[in-house]
Amino acid sequence: MKEIAYRDALREALREEMRRDQTVFLLGEDIGRFWGGAFKVTNGLAEEFGDERVRDTPISESTIIGAAVGAAITGMRPVAEIMFGDLTALAMDQIANQAAKIRYMFGGQAKAPMVIRTPFGGGVNIASHHSQSLEAWFMHVPGLYVAVPSTPYDAKGLLKTAIRGDNPVFFCEHKLLYPLKGMIPEEEYTLPFGKADVKREGKDVTVFATMFMVHQALTAAERLSRENISVEVIDPRTLVPLDKAALLASVKKTGRIVIVSEDCKTAGVSAEIAAIVAEEAIDYLDAPIKRVAEPDTPIPFSPPLEKFVIPDENRIIKAVKEIV
Amino acid sequence: MKEIAYRDALREALREEMRRDQTVFLLGEDIGRFWGGAFKVTNGLAEEFGDERVRDTPISESTIIGAAVGAAITGMRPVAEIMFGDLTALAMDQIANQAAKIRYMFGGQAKAPMVIRTPFGGGVNIASHHSQSLEAWFMHVPGLYVAVPSTPYDAKGLLKTAIRGDNPVFFCEHKLLYPLKGMIPEEEYTLPFGKADVKREGKDVTVFATMFMVHQALTAAERLSRENISVEVIDPRTLVPLDKAALLASVKKTGRIVIVSEDCKTAGVSAEIAAIVAEEAIDYLDAPIKRVAEPDTPIPFSPPLEKFVIPDENRIIKAVKEIV
Amino acid sequence: MTHDKEKLVEMYTKMLEIRFFEEKVYELYGQNLVPGTIHLYAGEEAVAVGVCSALSREDYIVSTHRGHGHCIAKGADLKKTMAEILGKKTGYCKGKGGSMHIADFNIGMLGATAVVGAGVPIASGAGLSIKLRGTDQVCACFFGDGASNQGTFHEGINLAATWALPVLFVCENNLYAMGTRQSQVMLIENVAERASAYGIPGVTVDGNDVLAVYEVAEEAVKRARVGKGPTLIECKTYRHKGHSRVDPATYRPKEEVAEWLKKDPIIRFREQLFKMHVLTEEEAKEIESKVTVAINAAVKFALESPYPEPEEALEDVYA
Amino acid sequence: MTHDKEKLVEMYTKMLEIRFFEEKVYELYGQNLVPGTIHLYAGEEAVAVGVCSALSREDYIVSTHRGHGHCIAKGADLKKTMAEILGKKTGYCKGKGGSMHIADFNIGMLGATAVVGAGVPIASGAGLSIKLRGTDQVCACFFGDGASNQGTFHEGINLAATWALPVLFVCENNLYAMGTRQSQVMLIENVAERASAYGIPGVTVDGNDVLAVYEVAEEAVKRARVGKGPTLIECKTYRHKGHSRVDPATYRPKEEVAEWLKKDPIIRFREQLFKMHVLTEEEAKEIESKVTVAINAAVKFALESPYPEPEEALEDVYA
Ligand SMILES: Cc1ncc(C[n+]2csc(CCOP(=O)(O)OP(=O)(O)O)c2C)c(N)n1
Ligand SMILES: Cc1ncc(C[n+]2csc(CCOP(=O)(O)OP(=O)(O)O)c2C)c(N)n1
Ligand SMILES: [Mg+2]
Ligand SMILES: [Mg+2]
Fold first, then answer.
1. Residue D1: is its pLDDT beyond 70?
2. Are B214 and B177 in a shared domain?
3. Strand, coil or helix: what is C299?
4. Quick check: C319 contacting D, CB < 8 Å?
5. CB-based contacts of D140, cutoff 8 Å, min separation 6
6. Closest partner residue to B59 among C88, C146, C317, by Cβ?
């Protein structure tokens, strides 16, 4: 095992897959030798693989994705970076109407093995156009997979799987996670999609969380344990496919669930999770379902404002206490 | 009272508001004198109000919305038409990042009184790029209102309110509803946002439905009544703001809810409604929450395939029977 | 210009196939046998055939809502095309795509997208793929005059230009986007003028003259294959029918329609072939009956084919 | 060219205000007093001031992530601008917007969007609004070289061209988009050449020469006010610092940076004013100290202002 930062784990995945498979290549704005990616994920890769396979693009988000689609359906495995998750809105047609549907519309003739990497999340005071978490939009698009790694280990293993798979994967990263360190094996590994990870076992209440919120949930769980409340923290690792079995098993065990998600509450990730539990495990619930999410506002700039809207351990603790 | 088709009711709303207020104008592709709108909603308006106020645009969805934003924040009240709801994906940045956030980002200085009209829904065999229902994406965007009229009466009343309001409104229409007829008053009226309509009263089970699904729900309710199952059909009319009080009151009364929505199930409209009930009325539920929605597939072309994916009265009846 | 008789006859035959195919689709639609909507290619045959004749089987094309002609020109099977348009299980896309989403990956037909303009970046991506794989393929991307006002046109062509990708951007300028005249939505007369914004060649050609289109396309293909990058080719043409099957197209002046009908690309090409002594009246008749037979067989096949089973709707979402 | 002394001095003063303002922001950022990120305008002052000097208070501007300069040039209050950048309640947007989303609707500053290129259609919309309301306002839209590769650039300008909207599309070509050189992402040398794709005038001007910019802008404003439609103005300029505060900008050759620093628009303009006898050394000093005082007052105001209350985050979502 070795210790590595989330961003470096992502880079290792890219590097290993690019070495293994000549059809893998990267495209995006400022991902090449002059910048190395806005968050440095691709730093050094242009030097190793050349400018042909690590391509700096114009500021044309829609075409970054469109070009990836065209390359993917003709034999390549592009990994496209959209510099900020908010900007995926510019490419929504290419993502949702083209990449995701191209296989289906054409009756299974085509496949589009491509990955769209993008950072979501707030916490660094860059306001409404650079701080959103929009996973829910993409969960709502059949044909896409949606990965949401919360640790370096998950990030590397899931990204390798994403690149090797034959479906378009919307791969979410998180600005605050990039510097986060964690242990990963020295040897090569991949992680399956649709397999949740119990980040902490517990018996009184299930906390379902993704991305940066997993860490808030773990902190909350630790603090609650001192008050003898035993929290189970479930991290789905991919939202599509979703490990429903793990989610429901945990809920059936604890009888309570708090769903934590760093996106606007209405029609967000937490809504779908709550709905699944309400459909399939309601008889096991001993308390109402709780959602901890952002209020329905854009993300404000000023630190006290931003801090107010992004869920934190205190809000999780409060929610847990309301139902145990 | 008079009988009128949904599309004509919409046109009446546009005409009345354009007569009342010089700042109201329309823009969109083929909405003018040569075509009158792909679904004929704007037919005849260019003749009455001139080409300056009923503007045919280039095929530039993103700029149709962007131009509406620019006009709205400088004193006009644009009503933009996007020819098919699927194509809003092309304008997602202008809708979600600009129109919706412009007020908030600028600390309340600006307002963007604009309406985005677009038809959703399947049923006419025009396949994956022209048949989706994407309301959930827009519910997830704070700063937007989302209207979902199911009848000529609701369509006219809500559209007038949308035009008069000071917020951007995402106004959903439905292809199969355009020819649908219904009664409306002779005299002028408007309908408030955030006020649900009980389309049919009942006591055994609540069926929450929107748009074309309201009619499927009513048919199902009628059929179920013959088996002595009393169904209450709730139509929220606007998804944002949502009349939670009416929803919860109905659920508390019936103890059961089936949520019907013509969109892909995962992270769709039905997820949010289910989540609200699971958070706020779980103790009143006598059965699991049921969602009736599209399976997670794009909309296929061939009639038997399309019919299979779009929810209908039979699926609603089946869902109701599973919980009563 | 090619003087290869076989090739010229093949081009003529393809054009005829498209025309007869579209006439059948028109007819079947009137009989309520075609679900949904259709956008006929009749009148524009010289564009698809001119361009595709300059391509090899390994080359790619990216198509649009008005895609039947592109398919046939690239060599698609008439039966599977017709079956798809009728929503049958035996169609190219098993009935999932229909008229607006036909594709045949075996012949490099990368599919039709019904989002106007969305094919442009996809074509650039195919060009990029070619470049990275180091083959000498090219990709031809069809789109309309209306599509040239989409952001994707700008972005996609700029990308291909900058990276010198082997792509032909073929604007089928039929003067209208639905009911909207070109002059209502842009100030310039020739869409090809936009090429200068990307530093690539732009050519405007008579889109009803199949040999002229062929020549321009051949030149562009040559450039593309040797790494000189994309060309924007604008073909001035006209659709004989309304935008879609239900459109009476009353927004078009009668004289304009009449004038363009006189420029029918098939009649023109036939006259030319006669003059060139490549074709005799008799041979022309023969081709016509051969094509009629083929189209009728396609219709029969499509009509007799079963619809997909409802549950098949759940397949093909993921690989 | 204007020879009105008052106007020239005002232009010079504005440029200085921007420069000193940016220097303070740079300094405050280093002291951890500026949250988030900032994109400094230093070096590009001649563009904003040249253009805005050709506008009246009633005219509009649409701005970008690099927007401090646009604000100040349009006449924004230094205090409220600085307070916003520091996230204070007294800022233009009550701390909700920050550096990338400043706006002052009272002076026609319609706000900065941080989505590159997104302002272009919004500016066209403002132009449309002007046309429909029948006022004689114009709207100037600022954006970068990088932004000119966005689909919105194409769509937005085409719309304004077609409808003859009173808009100035001002491309601040500072040669780079983050670390990406212009030549990496387009083949043409002058973004202004793209104007021909829309049938409107395109002008490339030395963006470090405030009077040259002013003249070109004045001409474009004149055209716009009489209904002749938009102009695309490309101003070649250079940012003195990195893209954002944390960028060391090592991708730029040292010689290039040195050369451009020599072309500093403020120094150049001052020399010009001396030569024109519009300004004396002494007067220049006076202006400098006046501006210094103003900037210091703005900093003091901003630093002493309170942050918003957390719950204010919930306000201003809907009207
Ligand atoms: C992005 C988008 N906008 C609108 C439509 C609706 N629509 C379908 S075809 C068409 C006109 C296209 O015109 P053009 O590009 O000139 O192609 P043509 O139909 O003339 O071949 C429109 C507006 C669409 N399918 N996609
Ligand atoms: C649509 C979009 N893509 C990417 C970014 C990230 N980004 C911010 S500024 C910038 C460079 C913009 O370059 P240019 O338009 O030349 O303006 P400049 O910064 O040089 O003034 C990028 C890529 C963004 N904010 N928006
Ligand atoms: Mg056309
Ligand atoms: Mg730049």
1. no
2. no
3. helix
4. no
5. D51, D52, D55, D59, D60, D61, D62, D123, D167, D168, D170, D217
6. C146
Among A132, A160, A184, identify where a domain stops.
A184
CA-to-CA dists, residue A160 to A52, A74, A166, D31, angstroms = 21, 20, 12, 41
Q: H or E stretch including C20?
A: helix C5-30
How far apart (Å, rounded) are the C-alpha atoms in residues B70 and B235? 33
A190 found inside a domain? no
Sign of the Cα pseudo-torsion (D287, D288, D289, D295, in order): positive
At residue D233, the pLDDT reads: 99
Instruction: State the average pLDDT over residues A7-12.
Output: 98
The span from the first CA to the last CA of chain D, in angstroms, equals: 44
pLDDT above 60: residue C59: yes
* B190 in any annotated domain: no
Ligand 1 pocket, mutate which of C63, C65, C169 (most atoms under 8 A from CB) = C65
User: How high is the pLDDT of residue C1?
Assistant: 54
Number of domains into which chain B is organized: 2
> Tokens standing for B204?
């055994």
- The number of the ligand 2 atom at minimal distance from the alpha carbon of D148 is 15
| Shared domain check, A160 and A61 | yes
Confidence of residue A170 (pLDDT cuts 50, 70, 90): very high
Cα C71 from Cα C75, distance rounded (Å): 6
Query: What's the 3-state SS for A260-322?
Result: EEEEECCCCHHHHHHHHHHHHCHHHCCCCCEEEEECCCCCCCCHHHHHHHCCCHHHHHHHHHH
Q: Is C10 exposed, middle or buried (CB count within 10 Å of its CB: 0-12, 13-18, 19+)? A: middle
Residues B173 and B224 both lie in one domain: no
Residue D39 CA: nearest ligand 2 atom is: 19
- Name the band, by pLDDT with cuts 50, 70 and 90, for residue D2: low
Q: Would you call A29 an interface residue with chain D, using a CB distance cutoff of 8 Å?
A: yes
Q: List the structure tokens of C138.
A: 């090219």
Residue A192 domain flag: no
Q: What is the CATH number of the domain that holds B16?
A: 3.40.50.970
The verdict on a CB contact (< 8 Å) between D125 and B166 is no
| CATH assignment at residue A250 | 3.40.50.920
Residues B132 and B242 in one domain: no
Same domain? A17 vs A152: yes
Query: D155 to chain C: which residues are within 8 Å by CB?
Result: 149-151, 154
Instruction: Give me the residues paired with residue A240 across strands.
Output: A146
Tell me the domains of chain C and their CATH numbers.
Answer: 5-307 (3.40.50.970)
pLDDT band at B273 (very low <50, low <70, confident <90, very high): very high
- Cα separation of the two ends of chain A: 38
Which residue carries 């827009």 as its tokens? B138
Residues A240 and A103 in one domain: no
Residue A189 lies in a domain: no
Segments forming the whole domain that contains residue B266 = 197-323
A-contacting residues of B 208-267, CB under 8 Å? 240, 263-264, 266-267
User: Which residue is it, tokens 């979402």?
Assistant: C317
> Does A147 share its domain with A268?
no
Q: Which helix (H) or strand (E) holds B170?
A: strand B169-174
β-sheet bridge partners, residue B170: B116, B146
Which ligand does the CA of A37 lie closest to? 2
> Are the CB atoms for A199 and A221 separated by under 8 Å?
no
Residue of A34, A57, A303 with shortest CB distance to D251: A34
Pick from B141, D153, D59, B73: nearest CA to A296: B141
Q: Count the helix, strand and coil residues of chain A and give each as a percent rounded to the nearest 5.
A: 40, 20, 40
DSSP β-ladder status, A181-184 and A2-5:
antiparallel
pLDDT value at position A273?
98
D96: closest CA among A298, C69, C207? A298
Domain boundary among B184, B208, B232: B184
A67 and A180 inside one domain: yes
